[in-house]
Every structure is written in C-alpha cells, then in structure tokens.
Write a structure and sequence with these properties.
heterodimer; A: 150 residues; alpha/beta; Rossmann fold; five-stranded mixed beta sheet; 5 strands; B: 472 residues; alpha+beta; Cytochrome-c3 Hydrogenase, chain B; four-stranded mixed beta sheet; 16 helices; 43% helix; globular
Chain lengths: 150, 472
C-alpha cells in the first residue's frame, strides 16, 4: 500500500498562518486513504509517522513571496537541523530525525502558500484564500503523480 | 573586574543569561542567573471575567499549559465555592500526571540527556539531542515515545496536545469515553518499560558524575511541596508544607491565601524573575527548593508499588534528605514512574467514566486560590474579583520563582568548583548551564515571559570588563 501522510501546520489564530490546518480541513473528506494531520507546529514526535509512510506532504504558510502564490519543494533530510527539539522542528529536520531514529525517509514535498496577513485574527485574507484553493487543487495531483512514479 | 557571560543559557525553557565575576587572580567571586524577558500576565488579565482565566493563563507557556489550566481552574472553583464532582477531580488528576510525564520526559531526554550520554566536556556542536540521536538512537526513540505517551493522554482527554480547553471552572467540560480510556491503558506497559530502563541506566551513571553531585546546588535548604494526611506523594490535593534539610516540619497546613504569610517575593534589579523565600526566615535565610527533589524528600511513600521500590533506593543516597540538585534528574524519573502507575489506577477506577463531571455556580467568594504540584514544583494562582466577577488582581507564584535563590546558589557553587578564569574551557561553562538545567526552569512561566529559551554566560574581570562570553 502506498501510504501518504499529509501534515498541515500553522497557527489558526494568526490570519494566513492557518493555511496548513485549513487545507487539511478541506482535503480530509476528499482523501479518505490519506493520513491527514493538522497541528500548530511540527514536533519530533511526528518522526515515527513520517518514517512509516511512502510520501510525506507538508503544507505551510510562507511569509515571503508574492501573496497568494504557491510553491512546491522536494525535501531531503537536513543534517543538523534538529539540534534543539523542544518546541518546533522544520520539515527537513523531521526527515533527518526519521532517518536517524527509524532508518527510513519517505519522498517528501513541502507545499507553501504565501500569505498577506499574519495578524491576530481568524480567517484567511483574499490572497490566502487564493493560495488555499490552489493548494487543495495541487495536493491530490501530487499524490497521484508520486504514486504513479513509484 | 573580568566577567564571563553565558548568553543565552541553552537547553532550558525560556531566555536567560549567567554572569560570572572574577577577581584579579581569575578566581570566581560571584555568579548570577538573570532572566531577560517579561510577559506580564498578571497585569493583562485585570478586568477580564474570572471564568476566562484558565484559558487565558494557560497561554503563559507551551510546555506546561495544563498545569496553569489546573491551578487556574482550582482558583476559580474556590471563587465559585464549589466542590467539583469526584469523577472530574480524578480526570483532572490524570491530566496533571500526564503533564508531569511529558514535561519530565522532555527535561530528561531532550534537554539533559546530551550531558549524561555525551559528557559535560563533549564538543557543544555534538552535545545536543541530535548527538544523542546519532550515538544512542534507542535511548532517543524511548525518550520521544515516553513524551509522546504523556502528550497523547493530554490530547485524548483535552482534545489538544497544547492548550487543551477541557479543564474548566467547576470540573471538566465532558466525560471520558470507554474507548479513550482503553486506548491509554494499552500504552501503559511500554511507558513503564521505558521509564524503568531509563532509571536503571541513570543509576548506573551516577558514579561517573560524583563531582557534579557534590557541587550542583548541593547545600542544606528548606523544601516546599504539597502534603496530605497519608504523607504520600501529592500532586493535586493537599496543603503546603515546609520542611528543613533534616526533614523536620517548619510550617504546615498552609492553605488558601495563607500562603502569603509564608512565601515572600522579592524583586531583582538584574532579572525579571523574582526571588521567592520563606517569609519567617527572611530573604537571606529563607532559601527553599520545590519540584521533584522537594516532593520526594517530603513524602514518606509514593503510594504506588514500583515507584515506592525506587523511592526506597533513592533515600539511600544520603542520610536524611537528598540535597544535591543533580538528583533532580533521578527524582524526575521516579516521578514519571509514579505518574504512570497512578494514572493506570485512576483509569481502572469504575467511576472514571461517570457522566457528572462539572459543577456550576456563580461567584460566591471575592477571592480564590488554586494550588497544584506542577512538574517543576508548587504552582499558585490567586485571583481577586469585583462584584461583577471581573478580575481585580492576580498573583501567580511559579515553581521556577520558588527555586530562583537556589538556582543562584547553585550557579555560584558550580562556577567556583569548575570555572578557572585564566584557563577557560567550554566544559566548565557547560556545567554552569547544566546546574540550571537540573532545576528544569521554565522562564516563560516564571516571569510570565514569552519566547524560546537560549542562554548567555558572561565572565567579568575585577574591573567589570567582559573577559569572555558564551552565547548559544
């Protein structure tokens, strides 16, 4: 079975930072065979689940780039990226942890949507909405492509 | 006068720095631990409805929000003058135990294990959790798994791993379901296996840390913790008790606002963290410690089978109380074991799935105090409200504040033991950081400050000149 882990992360109380969790909310009912996780930040405890899948997709908001634009980036383990694991780890550092602890790294893609407003409020800006729509179109496509080239 | 600055202090929760003052010969004359950020929660909650306090106060910290939720809710229970349903109390106790497990696992495995496994003198580039992951992956996996166990319990009961909103004034918002209980219980054996393994391993290492045992805040002091009639380990219910270094009781049965007669708070010019002291003895002589070491020193028994076996062995370390703060790490592991065992017992209680989990009432008192044993020690929330139920004033006394004087004593003791100003080595300064880590301070909570927690050590010459500075 081609196991896919989809993690959306960000703070739902900080405007467009909610892009990741909102993408999960929208995609979860559409992707019944995908393990969908929504969280505020990546933590080392996720390494085991990352190591167990074939494809890990990370969805995050970006504060740089043209607001509304969506980027994808293939990830590989980042040596030394997880030196302090108490609060937060980056996606690439999580891959490093999965490799070091469980001896396995999946294919991994980071999908980011550039936000326009990260103020203290709930809900996305117009550009954030635009990025969300694009991310939700892109993710099923990425899953399909990755499982096809496996 | 030369000064060494360690800024920021690493592998602790929050922002701090240490300054070490040298004399003309390069010997350590003084050392101070400074906390460099403030958040001011006591002030910003003024004017808010008291019922908002648990959710608001929990935002002080992302590591121990559950402890603040519990202490705050207990203070609100006091304002409402309600006795919460028995099931709700048991569920709250499970949450507190889960918080102790996840926080202690973080402290031992993530923050301090690099010192034990890789050595105090190891290259700082390597002496971190990734160094442990590379050299001791099984230990790292166990640490992550154990912390995850505590977090999963918090998430299962509270709905969220961080800042769960389930604990409310009057009890908890909804009952536990049978499948949730069963899911937690299936994870208990592995959590116990990991903890016992870590205890075995740590006990085997103590001999190689004799110098640290001798000098890591190893001095007679008072201890403060919650006590109960059975003299068992108590983390949720009870009263406050102070004992001295011989474990003789110096103050007992302290409840409610009475804490103000025994606990004094003194501001500092060079730190946002107040120094808390035993009021009857004054600031100079009223140094006390809280947290795992204090709790294990104070209780006669843990109250669970395996933890009691470990506690008996722990007591053999010294004749009366265990005074070296290096043993905070050891005490933490025993508390994890106790917490898992006690949690299992509570979950097997027939009443744990009861549906009556919340008492409702309007305010019946203008003042409320909630006291709890948080992972790092005694936590006090104290609120006063007006006739509309709005907060007039809030006071929080946090574990790290209680320990501040002892931490400063420890920093000086370790600096005098290890730091040679004329031949400075990184391992010397790491020991100064490590004594702070032994207390597992949470500075965000204690100054009600925000942010990640780096460290800064300064070495000052006799004329005040900064001779060396370590920032990580």
């Amino acid at each position: 079975m081609f196991r896919v882990l989809l993690i959306g992360y960000g703070n739902t109380l900080r405007g467009d930072d909610a892009l990741g969790p909102m993408a999960i909310e929208r995609l979860r009912p559409l992707l019944p065979d995908v393990e969908c996780l929504s969280c505020q930040q990546l933590v080392p405890e996720l390494a085991e689940r990352v190591a167990e899948c074939e494809l890990a997709l990370f969805v995050d908001a970006a504060c740089n780039g043209e607001p509304g634009a969506v980027r994808t980036e293939r990830l590989s383990p980042k040596p030394g990226g997880a030196a302090s694991l108490t609060h937060h780890v980056e996606a690439a550092a999580l891959l490093e942890l999965a490799q070091a602890l469980y001896g396995r790294v999946p294919q991994a893609v980071l999908v980011t949507g550039a936000g326009a407003d990260f103020g203290s409020r709930e809900g996305l800006s117009e550009q954030g909405q635009q990025a969300l729509t694009e991310i939700c179109r892109l993710i099923p496509q990425l899953i399909q492509d990755s499982s096809a080239i496996r | 006068m030369p000064t060494i600055t360690i800024d920021p202090v690493t592998r602790i929760e929050g922002h701090a720095k240490i300054t070490i003052q040298l004399d003309e010969q390069g010997e350590v004359q003084n050392a101070r631990f400074h906390v460099t950020q403030v958040r001011g929660f006591e002030k910003l909650c003024e004017g808010r409805p008291f019922t908002e306090m648990p959710a608001l106060m929990a935002r002080i910290c992302g590591i121990c929000p559950t402890s603040h939720l519990l202490a705050s809710s207990k203070a609100c229970d006091d304002i409402m003058a309600v006795r919460i349903p028995e099931t709700a109390e048991k569920l709250r106790r499970i949450m507190n135990l889960a918080q102790i497990i996840q926080s202690h696992a973080l402290s031992f495995f993530y923050l301090s294990s690099p010192d034990f496994l890789l050595g105090m003198d190891a290259d700082p580039e390597e002496r971190n959790i990734m160094g442990v992951v590379r050299k001791y992956p099984a230990m790292a996996r166990d640490g992550i798994k154990l912390r995850q166990f505590g977090q999963r319990v918090l998430e299962t009961l509270g709905g969220k791993r961080v800042h769960p909103g389930w604990i409310v004034p009057g009890g908890v918002s909804h009952p536990l379901q049978a499948d949730q209980r069963d899911q937690i219980l299936t994870q208990v054996p592995e959590a116990i296996r990991i903890t016992r393994g870590a205890l075995r391993w740590f006990k085997g290492q103590i001999e190689s840390f004799r110098a640290e045992v001798r000098s890591f805040a190893n001095f007679p002091s008072l201890f403060l913790a919650m006590a109960n009639n059975a003299n068992e380990f108590s983390a949720y219910n009870g009263w406050l008790r102070f004992v001295d270094a011989n474990l003789d009781i110096v103050a007992d049965h302290i409840t409610g606002v009475d804490y103000m007669n025994y606990i004094g708070e003194s501001g500092n010019d060079d730190s946002y963290l107040k120094s808390t002291y035993f009021k009857p003895y004054g600031l100079k002589d009223g140094v006390y410690r809280v947290g795992p070491l204090a709790r294990l020193n104070m209780c006669e028994s843990a109250g669970t089978v395996q933890a009691d076996e470990e506690l008996a062995e722990f007591r053999e370390l010294e004749r009366h109380s265990v005074l070296s703060s290096f043993y905070y790490h050891y005490a933490r592991l025993i508390e994890i074991l106790f917490s898992i065992e006690r949690m299992e017992t509570l979950l097997q209680d027939t009443e744990i799935l009861g549906k009556n989990v919340r008492a409702h009432a309007a305010p019946n008192n203008f003042e409320g105090v909630g006291i709890l044993e948080a992972p790092r020690g005694t936590l006090i929330h104290h609120y006063r409200i007006d006739q509309n139920g709005l907060i007039e004033s809030a006071n929080m006394v946090i574990a790290t504040g209680h320990n501040n004087l002892a931490i400063n004593h420890g920093v000086l003791q370790v600096a005098r033991q290890f730091v040679k100003g004329n031949a400075l080595q990184p391992g010397m300064l790491n020991r100064v950081e490590a004594v702070v880590r032994a207390f597992d301070p949470c500075l965000s909570c204690s100054t009600h400050a925000a942010g990640a927690m780096p460290l800064d050590i300064q070495l000052l010459a006799a004329d005040g000149e900064v001779v060396d500075r370590l920032i990580r």
